Amino acid sequence: MPPEVILDNEYATVWFYPKDKVIHHQFHKFIHGDKFREVLTRGADIMGEQGAVKWLSDDRLNSAVPKEDTAWALSTWMPRIQTIGWKYWAVLYPDKKIGQINLSYFIRELSQQGVTAEVFDDVDEALNWLRSVN
Description:
This protein is α/β, with parallel strands linked by helices. The chain has helices spanning 33-50, 67-84, 97-112, 123-132, and strands at residues 4-8, 12-17, 22-27, 54-58, 88-92, 116-120. It starts with a strand and ends with a helix.
């Protein structure tokens, strides 16, 4: 069963894999502000509606998240997604070092809240890992 396209614009695409209950986003370029928040909010909406607990983040073409978006993610999005029951996160790091450092911070924060995160270099490997975990 092919994934459903939830959002598709010049900044990002978000898919939902109904069979595997996986949210998957891919950033197409540096993203911030309303566009960044839209991606995370739409993914959280689908997670809540579909009972999904797995997320694949392909952030290779992104960079560090600005302070305002980090604050929003920590204070608004993360509590919401934790309430939904997020358990597994497969991550493809940004190509830029500053983005890698920034995303590592989010991985540490979420790991402390019970989300199991793994870093991958390949989308298929990341998706296969998510399909293998319960």
